[in-house]
Amino acid sequence: MELSEEKLLKMYQDMIEIREFERKVDYFISHGDITGTTHLYIGEEAIAVGAINAAEEKDYISSTHRGHGHSIAKGVNIKEMMAELFGKTTGSCKGKGGSLHIVDSDTNNLGANGIVGGGIPIAVGAALAAKMQENGEVILCFFSDGAMNQGAFHEAVNMASVWDLPVVFICENNQYGMSTSVEKAFNIQDLSARAKAYNIPGVKIDGNKIMEVYEVVQEAVERARQDGGPSLIVAETYRWKGHSKSDAKVYRTKEEEKAWKERDPIAQFEEELKAQGILDEQKIEDIREEIDEKVEAAVKFAQESPFPDKEDIYDDVYVDGEVEL
Amino acid sequence: MELSEEKLLKMYQDMIEIREFERKVDYFISHGDITGTTHLYIGEEAIAVGAINAAEEKDYISSTHRGHGHSIAKGVNIKEMMAELFGKTTGSCKGKGGSLHIVDSDTNNLGANGIVGGGIPIAVGAALAAKMQENGEVILCFFSDGAMNQGAFHEAVNMASVWDLPVVFICENNQYGMSTSVEKAFNIQDLSARAKAYNIPGVKIDGNKIMEVYEVVQEAVERARQDGGPSLIVAETYRWKGHSKSDAKVYRTKEEEKAWKERDPIAQFEEELKAQGILDEQKIEDIREEIDEKVEAAVKFAQESPFPDKEDIYDDVYVDGEVEL
Amino acid sequence: MREITGRQAVNEALREEMERDENVFLIGEDIGIYGGAFGVTNGLLDKFGEKRVRDTPISEAGIAGAAVGASLMGMRPVAEMMFMDFITIASDQIINQGAKIHYMFGGQMNAPFVLRMPAGAAAAGAQHTQSLEALLYHIPGLKVVMPSTPYDLKGLLKTSIRDDNPVMFIEHKKGYGEKGEVPEEEYTIPFGQADIKREGEDLTIIATSHMVFKALKAAEELAKQGIDAEVLDPRTLVPLDMESIVKSVSKTGRAVVVHEAHRRGGIGGDIVARIVDSEAFYYLETPIKRITGPNTPVPFSPVLESEFIPSEEKIIKGVLDILD
Amino acid sequence: MREITGRQAVNEALREEMERDENVFLIGEDIGIYGGAFGVTNGLLDKFGEKRVRDTPISEAGIAGAAVGASLMGMRPVAEMMFMDFITIASDQIINQGAKIHYMFGGQMNAPFVLRMPAGAAAAGAQHTQSLEALLYHIPGLKVVMPSTPYDLKGLLKTSIRDDNPVMFIEHKKGYGEKGEVPEEEYTIPFGQADIKREGEDLTIIATSHMVFKALKAAEELAKQGIDAEVLDPRTLVPLDMESIVKSVSKTGRAVVVHEAHRRGGIGGDIVARIVDSEAFYYLETPIKRITGPNTPVPFSPVLESEFIPSEEKIIKGVLDILD
Ligand SMILES: Cc1ncc(C[n+]2csc(CCOP(=O)(O)OP(=O)(O)O)c2C)c(N)n1
Ligand SMILES: Cc1ncc(C[n+]2csc(CCOP(=O)(O)OP(=O)(O)O)c2C)c(N)n1
Ligand SMILES: [Mg+2]
Ligand SMILES: [Mg+2]
């Protein structure tokens, strides 16, 4: 896999940006500036960044409730995303969506989803369109382990398989759906075994190794693009933070958390890039500084942006026409 | 497999009874005495009879839209079932259910289901109860190929697997869901491969060979009874008739139909029993006569029974209490 | 003018829209070689091929999701639920996804798909006979169309396919066999325009879907008794043409609402409430009656099923009740 | 009397019923060690073990189906949907199976399960905030309970668990934190009995779930302006205590109905229609107003969400409108 230095650095930057963005979100959630709850992507950065960079810009993604990382990797304007979390009118969804519904049509991002597994049939529908339009576009469909036990997963993956649709199913197996471990929710250890039920390629990979993610996803994307049908990739990873704001994490041990943190996807990639002479301490510092500024600017934008007007509640229910009162 | 002559004869009789019952239904459907539509079990008799006889009386079944055969094998009173099809007040459901909702709590029959796959989660719930009650009961859950692409199948089988529930999933693969062939609806040839997705035993068998059905189901039932968890059995078969009343069968060939009819499960079993000296022509004639009489009696009962009163519409909405008008 | 059936009307609308716009395609169970459980898509596979008349596995959530997803990419899917009762399986995609995408995404995307589904009692038991329009009517973001005549079926289906929002298109099984005049020429019918199917002065019968035919027959009977009923068919439930309803009820001072769905929580209650909350309240001379299916599942037995379905006689009785 | 929160009230009801009847068990997502997304089942795993407090995979159709199936075998499952919005995934099991089993099987079987689910807007966007009671209210065979206070939550949940029919038990997220008096002693509350939460002479405010608290506050405000509002909480929607509603409205001659759900097709319309079709019609001095969530999905931004939820001010304004 020969990647340009530029691309490798971009991927590294994306990972840092995700982590720093999420740290800020964590802060503002716990301080009440962001209302409701949110699901942080910290610890899983290698998957979104590796996968999305393995595809082309014209390709699409569908995302999840834990979706900030996917959106950043796909190129969302983080000012707008942060403003959305703050419920501001300048947000990605004009404040109507919040964290669970970040979307970005400019970057071919079909949006996050508050329903576990809810985005999978939609991704398959998008892939059906791509196939009918013969435009060579591929859809990356992200979800986590919990979603694999939704009926929607089953129906949609089967349809994608039967019709050879250009979609890559990427399971971010972060070992838990909320408090429920994969051991409790599945009777299989290797979730990629589910691919056999649909006769599509299935592979389990180390989701904390960005280059592994990149390579495997790229292969799957190219196969899909050549009309070779869908694949299932299960990337093993871990969410460092609680499931959401109010999670006391009583269902897992500190040791387990520690072990996974030692396998930090960013630190691992950093080591690689250092070894390749692409990164050094100075460069890392520069990058971090740049990203800090970018994230700070997003926060500032979000904070300074106005809330929507009350009357905006009636907009966007229908494309045309009015809401009945 | 040592079965008593008595039991073998009973199984043979059940198969004949199903076929003759269904032939009568076919007649009365096409003559308008039975309204609506119905789905005939002709050609698939070996599965219901083999499977249900491999279990014990105390075990339960859950059935499908093509459910007359399961009900007969489980011991339903065919007078009541026929009366139900005629919409009579003496019917299994007092005329409220019709063919799609035959049920018989006396014989531990949890009922047919109009929703493809709809009975699978219910069977799993029943199995959960059996497990909690530690009563050694097993649930036989019948469905056909089409149901395997319902999300409900996926969710329910996974739960049964994770909790080691005493349920045997029996797919009657009759090659079609309505007009849609297994080839069109699946990208796998052997549907029992789906078992791997849940790490349960999965096996494909000849569903037109009753003793094969019997043996494989018995093993699965005993495993389930010993707390060994669920299994998936895919029994290959064919429905001789159209999907339902109005089916012109344009989606399949006469040759295919002929080939399958040559593999008639009843004729095959008859040959076996003859070879074993359990059956001869005289005995066959006696059995057929007896069953003809039984089915005729059911028809007579159905025809002579009264329709419900209009006011009966308001009964049975709730166990207690009234319907709001 | 030529007469065709409801079934043909739907078929023609699909055919014409598929000819007009190559992005329109059909997806559903057994809609291809089988022609649909009710024969509605007959012949379309031959004309447009498997790509545009796509048979699916029995996966209603998958079908609805495919429609949502494809619609986001510029396609114009027309998905079929073989029976309306099966929206229960697809309802996450309908209610939480399709209906809300435009709104929760702040207008960034829209989902222009149509979901066609036959409703209504027709000898098939509790799980194949429901009229569940109230469930869709409640969900902001959906448009809900429920036509009666072949003319309305055709014109409104064409409008539905061209609409930029998710449209729930509810057909009635018994409407497939009803005949009516339909011009050869192209036409569409705008949403939100009720149709006065019969003019009258003494009271307004607001009836939906197949009940329109029964209401019209009841009105003829009533005419013999000197009662002049107006029969108003809303045709689209969302948007609902309250203006015409209010106008009619203000004129007649009396109303009955007729639908086949269960009374409790049916759309009839909402229509009553909207009338009561309008200027028509001040013209009301009598309570507004609802003549509907009862609050029971739909029973199978023909005797019970015909008791379930609001009959001409029950409509007449309901009308006479409020005229006393 | 001691005061406890809505959350504690539900928890106590579950605990007591599980102690009373060993067939009662809980099933749902993250209800065990996590104690439920809203902490409602806290401590129950410790007390009753994994067998009776069963965490599931994220499979709502499977959960509902498991509840239906287990209930047919003599168990008394209490299943939780983590958010009411997820009934969309389980709705085939709820609507086509659980609700209809007793009826379509001619009374041969019954399905005594409870489905608990938190509804209501609370800063979580369009897919986690809906009040979808209208969808359940429409389906014959279901009982639908929607309590407000801790006292009602506890007493009605106990009744629900003992009921022999499928009961949809709708909690409000904001009700979990509300405090109220709840006796130490055992009690249950019968279905179909509305509670007059405040007596008054000038008009009737019919309010459900968390809107009861707002209606009571509005009534206090109105009292300062010399307007004496009666606040009626139906508590159970199916069965609905129309007798009390008709009595109250006949007394006051005026009514407003308040719910958080979207107006169109919400239960408010049905209640209005039932009032209009009752003897209370003849006592009505003004139109009946509905004060409800608008016909839009629930938006996320706090500014928009608080515009969505009917406020004390809006209730007061609605009341003043009809009093003019
Ligand atoms: C259908 C549905 N069920 C339940 C929930 C509540 N919920 C939100 S996230 C979550 C856990 C999801 O687990 P997983 O799919 O593994 O994603 P992860 O949070 O691990 O990224 C649950 C149960 C939901 N949003 N949607
Ligand atoms: C959820 C659902 N979708 C569609 C239907 C309509 N339908 C009834 S039977 C049937 C075919 C079922 O195929 P399969 O499960 O293979 O059963 P078979 O008829 O072959 O016994 C269909 C599509 C239904 N009843 N339920
Ligand atoms: Mg996970
Ligand atoms: Mg089949």
Automatic annotation (TrEMBL), chains A, B:
Pfam families in UniProt: E1_dh
Catalytic class of the enzyme: oxidoreductase
The protein's required cofactors: thiamine diphosphate
Keyword Ion transport applies: no
Highest taxon, organism lineage: Bacteria
The entry's keywords: Oxidoreductase, Pyruvate, Thiamine pyrophosphate
Domain Dehydrogenase E1 component: residue ranges: 14-309
Catalysed reactions, as listed in the record: N(6)-[(R)-lipoyl]-L-lysyl-[protein] + pyruvate + H(+) = N(6)-[(R)-S(8)-acetyldihydrolipoyl]-L-lysyl-[protein] + CO2
Entry's Gene Ontology molecular function annotations: pyruvate dehydrogenase (acetyl-transferring) activity
UniProt key word Zinc: no
Function: The pyruvate dehydrogenase complex catalyzes the overall conversion of pyruvate to acetyl-CoA and CO(2).
Subunit structure: Heterodimer of an alpha and a beta chain.
Protein name (Swiss-Prot/TrEMBL): Pyruvate dehydrogenase E1 component subunit alpha
Source organism: Halanaerobium polyolivorans
Gene name, Swiss-Prot/TrEMBL: pdhA
TrEMBL record, chains C, D:
GO molecular function, one term: oxidoreductase activity
Cofactor(s) of this protein: thiamine diphosphate
Stretches assigned to coiled coil: none
UniProt keyword terms in alphabetical order: Oxidoreductase, Thiamine pyrophosphate
Domain Transketolase-like pyrimidine-binding as annotated: residue spans: 4-178
Family annotation (InterPro entries): THDP-binding, Transketo_C/PFOR_II, Transketolase-like_Pyr-bd, Transketolase_C
PANTHER family named among the record's database cross-references: PYRUVATE DEHYDROGENASE E1 COMPONENT BETA SUBUNIT (PTHR43257), PYRUVATE DEHYDROGENASE E1 COMPONENT SUBUNIT BETA (PTHR43257:SF2)
Protein name: Alpha-ketoacid dehydrogenase subunit beta
Taxonomic placement: Bacteria, Bacillati, Bacillota, Clostridia, Halanaerobiales
